[in-house]
Structures
1.
Amino acid sequence: MRVNRRDFLRYACLIVPAGVVPLSRRLIGATAESSAKQKYSLEGHKYAFIVDSTRCIGCGECVRSCNMENKVPEGFVRTWVERYTTTKSGKVIVDSTYDVWRQRKKAERFNFEELKSVPAADISKAFFLPKLCNHCANPPCVPVCPVGATYQSPEGVVLTDPNYCFGCGYCIQACPYGVRFKNPITHTADKCTWCYHRIVKGLLPACVEICPTGARQFGDAAIAGSPIAQVLESAKLHVLRKDFGTNPKVYYIELNPEVR
Amino acid sequence: MPQGIRFKDIRHIIHAAILIVVVMVGFLVARALTVPKSFGQYGHYRGDSIHENQDLSVILENPETCRECHESELKRKPDEPAIWPGLDAWRKGKHGSLTCANCHGNLKEHVERRRKDPTSETFVVTKDNRPQLCLLCHHAIVARPKVLPIFDPLREEHASYLEVLKEEQEEVIGCNTCHPSYRPHDPKLSE
């Protein structure tokens, strides 16, 4: 069939807009949607948390701010501070703001009291150690969930889904660090999220923000030259219970062997 | 076709097959109805859960938010002593690693308290227990690093201060009477 110029132009005028209009609508729709959504991308992050135990002064501000930020029910904590005291005879005494949790006492301040059981002259070494969810690269809590209500986000943050969890408690038992608990209000598993709602907005986790000495540091190691990337490269880092093979992403500067 | 098998026997197999199909279809329908839509979007979990976790509200504000009101001199009351050195000068001081909320409480409660009663304490604790706030960090307890200035109750000035506290006088002096909170390394003890 031969097409003359008149017919060609006529059909071209009909066909070309018919193809372009839906295409352009898709393009406009896509750009409008992406600008309306946050610019935060789930890909390309490598979050790391660094605990400098030499700097911790045991004020308990991290625990208080975490409980406020995450509306943690009274009597429970998502992060806590431990105190390891070694006596001259080699005995290790551990006490913690976490004791508050175990004793289910009303605790408003979460600060350490004077250690009364040991006379001051008998102490050879003592230090504070903050603890929180390690956000393991190989988390034992995730595969045990029967419904997929706890998971690793694409950035590697271990999160829970309180709207889907039915509170069987397997993950609470699976965690070797004891960071999970059952929320008595929602009756679902609850844990530290590294303040995921804050870090996606470019803020620091509440405990890092409030820490007066810089004992808690947080950042995205995927950003070259960021303070956290420099610390990860240069400092001598340890993780809790490396032998468990959980590959924690909470790194400790100076970890004493008595820490468990 | 062998002699013994008749259509009547095949009917049983067809019944069983229908039953299997009904059970399978029933399972698929039930699954489609119960599994959330976003399940499997990023992995073996509800994809919407990520966005629900992201959308939780931020409660603890950082000093940059406080700067919006307190960086300018205009917000300062005329009779108030000019102790606030400004955010950048404070950051250089020894208490510069703290954040506003350590002493003043979180922004929301601070604003609500001041709105109710503009003369109320700006500190998170009242005058009566203000030393408790300082002692959270500066109390000499086991394991506290020695680099931190530790409150020594046996010092002469502190002993008299504690006497004042015991008597519960009207005008209780806080630690910041002698140690300025924003520049603790610049004591006005000589004044």
Note: The longest strand of chain A covers residues 123-131.
2.
Amino acid sequence: MAEDLNWAVGGEAGDGIDSTGKIFAQALSRAGRHVFTSKDFASRIRGGYTAYKIRTSVDDVQSVVDRLDVLVALTQRTIDENLDELHEGSAVIYDGERSWEAEIPDEMTAVDVPLKSLAEEAGGAIMRNVVALGAACAIANFDVEYLDEALEKRFGGKGSKIVENNKAAARLGEEYVEENYDLDHLGYDLETTDNDYVLLNGNEAIGMGALAAGCRFYAGYPITPATTIMEYLTGRIEEYGGHVVQAEDELSAINMALGGARAGARSMTATSGAGIDLMTETFGLVATSETPMVICDVQRSGPSTGMPTKQEQGDLNMALYGGHGEVPRFVVAPTSITECFWKTIEAFNLAEKYQTPVFLISDLAMSVTEQTFPPEAFDMDAVEIDRGKLVDDDTVDEWLDEGGRFRAHAVTDDGVSPRAIPGTTDGAHMSTGLEHDELGRRTEDQDERVRQVDKRYRKVETAQEREDWEYREFGDPDADSLVISWGSNEGALVEALGYLEEDGIDVRVISVPYIFPRPDLTEEVEAADDVIVVECNATGQFADLIEHDTLTRVKRINKYTGVRFNADELAEEITDQLAAEVPAK
Amino acid sequence: MSSDVRFTDFKSDKQPTWCPGCGDFGTMNGMMKALAETGNDPDNTFVVAGIGCSGKIGTYMHSYALHGVHGRALPVGTGVKMARPDIEVMVAGGDGDGYSIGAGHFVHAVRRNVDMTYVVMDNRIYGLTKGQASPTSRSDFETSTTPEGPKQPPVNPLALALASGASFIAQSFASDALRHQEIVQQAIEHDGFGFVNVFSPCVTFNDVDTYDYFRDNLVDLEEAGHDPSDYEAAKGVILDSEKEYQGVMYQDENSVPYHEQHGVTENMSEIPDGAPEDAMDLVREFY
């Protein structure tokens, strides 16, 4: 793999860290470099340490590593928080004129740049972060002109004067470093390519997938880290005749989405675990009334309020089992940002084909990570829409009973009933959370009850037969060591393979995007000498499923610090686990 | 089919299990007649019901319908109407459904002013669970869970609606069939959220707020010459705890419903077979 550069900007929440990092990430992307970003942030509008980190290479990058090469530190805490990632070749940009005394270890290169003064020279102190970006360009031998397009994108709405001032600020930063420091010995030299990349995060990919899939109605209640899906759709969905409504709470949001879906719109809500708790009240109704709906859970650390701005994959069991009684649901967990897009589209198709709610499970790490992709990774021509057994005025007759009543819950061989939406002549029918007969009317008849329960579960059997529930595979398919993961750990695992290979360790990686229904991994597990399941939770919820499916004890790597896996860390953990005994439990 | 729709077309073939004499019979009949009278038919009508005796209404009526979870009927109706502005939406519930477990949604549905009708069958009691205090029960109303009465003032749903910025507030009496139908009809025709609180007596568990009580005490606002466009006059009757009123208390003649405020006019059920034509523009935004 080509040389990578790890860069970060950090400071207090409210210092504009996020937009500063985003500008640099965009500039790198425009220069034809791959980018993978991560954020350390707190749930506060102002105050508290926050950082935006970028890993960049001309090759594909899918993970962060425990190494920081260039750091823009707006506070001492930024330096302290990252000491273990800084190394002898690191450069730390700081403003020596500010009141704090920067304590930077001697072996590192301290680059004192009067950020505020130079920003004032360019037209305003507010541009000090952009001065720092210019300084970073000088250190990395990266042409400052690449910042221009990103600055235009960020500040274009504020007028050309502001844009020009920012461009000037960046150049002042660059010139200051070039004139006052000789940093060639650090050896940073960012190669550029002619490739065009788009830069987006997982939540944007989910939102874009929803639009591509024909989602027209979104109801939600703001919650970290799901809100950015709602914000993405707002202002865009209207272009396609849709609407986003901010509900008064999650109870309302899922019920609004339920109404939209009953009315025939592809409808969605997104929230995080705490919101799923509330939505669970209505989940059973959605499922038993056989309403197609996509419910997105962007997981964060729980339980209760937990660590709202931290990573976790702790909601798997809730998605699988949440709610009283028994009713099927599908659970899909995209494993990468591009998959956030494709799996969202698939979720809408599954929901309508099987008239079943679909949980789309993402997580905080994926929601805030911005990553570069060739635009073809989101090929809209490849998007397929399947609305399932939707009847119209011409076909509704086939599904009327002898009394001319629409059989909305008709018991069929494949378990899927016809679906009539309001406005369809003679399609009027009732749906309810009560157990019901084919017409949707309440029943407590024992035989009818069994027929309806069986019919609903038959949809799962049908889906298992008809759809591909395949896993994604990386590494050496013949390796004796098998590592299984679900959700967003895929990228770090794929990069970990490189480190493991350097150490002569061959590993087969299986990344599972389908939690229910899911691929049967019995053969794969039996073929391996060592099986390790990797996930960001304490108890190994997915590992439990694998053990249940395959009747084999597995090793587990669990991280529940609130921070995602890094590639190098994961390689070490895998090496350790391969040497360890399988726990007896 | 709308030109020759009769109100019986809105009736299902399920026999109601309400107690004989229940106010909900009259409430439902008036709703069906008002729907037919306003040119709707079962195939373009969506009825949402909550939980409680009132919640059974979706089963006894014939239309597109959803019988939802307790207290959340208004959000469901909101979703239906936003997705399908072409569909007539009527939400029905009881005082427990609307003013207790669903009170939060009531406030926000009122202020959102979605163009739908909300009929609350207010019997001032929990009937389906066999007689406990409801949010509109009198403070001295003795029930199995409040042996000495709730000892707290009843919710005034009309005042709650007014304080939430309602554009249409009305009250009717299930037994005054003609007036009830007229009032529901006005709520349907109103451009915005048409709210009707219906006195719908429970003959089994409430021996205080009876048919006789309402017959003896009800003041008809139309007969009294009340002007619903007069906000101050509306406030007066709504906050008057001494009397029981029927009629339209308040109607904002300049009401602009949600879909007009937000430009939500499309039938959202219609989508292309693939991604929208210009969808690659969405990708290019991320350059």
Note: Chain A has 18 helices and 21 strands.
